[in-house]
């Protein structure tokens, strides 16, 4: 089997020239590139990728830690990451964590072992203090804001978006407002939601907060419990359009009109929200993912804030 030295000898060039051709280096004459490629094709030569990576000093592989791969919000971020990776000829390894802190550390160790060039963290279970040491071995980019200078981030001002939603509902005359979350107070998003609620309405009634909401089915369950309260809420802010769709389904099955009896607003502008005419907060997570990839590829520690949009439809 031919090796890189054989290819260089047969093409009449140096080993370093063959290496440049394999790594698509632009500073190679077309004549030499054609000569090397001709020999590679004739010998059916396949380079040792590990050796090429070692020469190049990078793998062109980026890891993406994602808690769940069947969640619309994380799927949108991943879609953005994959969009940009295809354009830039990078590979992405999807690393589902299920918010297991030990699994996250195991994945981050791939940076230390030079298996990845960079890591994108869409959401995390570990404190930053456990993550930051791995930044010495490769670029780490977060999809939430962090003040730590070692970590780049593509983020949006979630607190501002939550505040805008609650202020809008208050302006519409609602005072009994419920909301749903995926996780409890260990989640930064949940803490920000509760803080925004408190700023607009005062301390939330625990009965008006439904946890463990990830899917349409969870939304249906949340609607069943929340709309069975006395007094029941007149508005619900769901942590996703799938969840909002489940609430909508239960409300309509119970004979409630939307928005006359119940106002509903979701998140992330998903297809179900469009079809049901649900108002939503579009955090533009595809763009968040695209920006996160660019930061990771460029080994940047920049903090880039992405915009969000509040989309008004008939459900409020």
UniProtKB/TrEMBL annotation:
Membrane-spanning ranges: none
Cross-referenced CDD domains: HTH_LacI, PBP1_CcpB-like
Domain HTH lacI-type intervals: 2-56
MF (Gene Ontology): DNA binding
InterPro entries cross-referenced by the UniProt entry: HTH_LacI (IPR000843), Lambda_DNA-bd_dom_sf (IPR010982), Peripla_BP/Lac1_sug-bd_dom (IPR001761), Peripla_BP_I (IPR028082)
Keyword terms: DNA-binding, Transcription, Transcription regulation
UniProt xrefs under Pfam families: LacI (PF00356), Peripla_BP_1 (PF00532)
Record flagged with keyword Membrane: no
Domain of life: Bacteria
Protein name: LacI family DNA-binding transcriptional regulator
Organism: Paenibacillus haidiansis
Taxonomic placement: Bacteria, Bacillati, Bacillota, Bacilli, Bacillales
């Amino acid at each position: 089997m031919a090796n890189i030295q054989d290819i260089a000898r047969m093409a009449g060039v140096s080993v370093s020239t063959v290496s440049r051709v394999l790594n698509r280096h632009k500073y190679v004459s077309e004549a030499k590139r054609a000569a090397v490629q001709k020999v590679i094709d004739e010998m059916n030569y396949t380079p040792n990728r590990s050796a090429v990576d070692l020469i190049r000093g990078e793998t062109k592989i980026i890891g993406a830690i994602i808690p769940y791969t069947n969640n619309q919000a994380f799927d949108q971020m991943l879609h953005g990451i994959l969009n940009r990776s295809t354009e830039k000829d990078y590979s992405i390894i999807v690393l589902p964590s299920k918010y297991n802190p030990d699994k996250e550390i195991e994945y981050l160790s791939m940076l230390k072992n030079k298996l990845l060039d960079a890591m994108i963290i869409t959401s995390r279970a570990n404190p930053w203090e456990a993550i930051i040491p791995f930044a010495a071995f490769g670029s780490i980019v977060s999809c939430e804001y962090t003040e730590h200078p070692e970590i780049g981030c593509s983020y949006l001002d979630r607190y501002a978006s939550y505040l805008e939603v609650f202020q809008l509902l208050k302006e519409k005359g609602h005072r009994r407002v419920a909301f749903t979350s995926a996780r409890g107070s260990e989640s930064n998003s949940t803490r920000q939601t509760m803080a925004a609620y408190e700023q607009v309405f005062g301390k939330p009634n625990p009965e008006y907060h439904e946890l463990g909401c990830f899917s349409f089915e969870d939304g249906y369950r949340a609607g069943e419990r929340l709309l069975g309260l006395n007094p029941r809420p007149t508005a619900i802010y769901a942590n996703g359009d799938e969840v909002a769709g489940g609430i909508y389904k239960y409300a309509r099955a119970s004979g409630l009109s939307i928005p006359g009896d119940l106002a509903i607003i979701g998140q992330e502008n998903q297809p179900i929200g469009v079809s049901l005419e649900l108002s939503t907060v579009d955090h533009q997570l595809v763009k968040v993912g695209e920006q996160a990839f660019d930061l990771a590829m460029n080994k940047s520690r920049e903090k880039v804030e992405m915009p969000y949009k509040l989309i008004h439809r008939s459900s409020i």
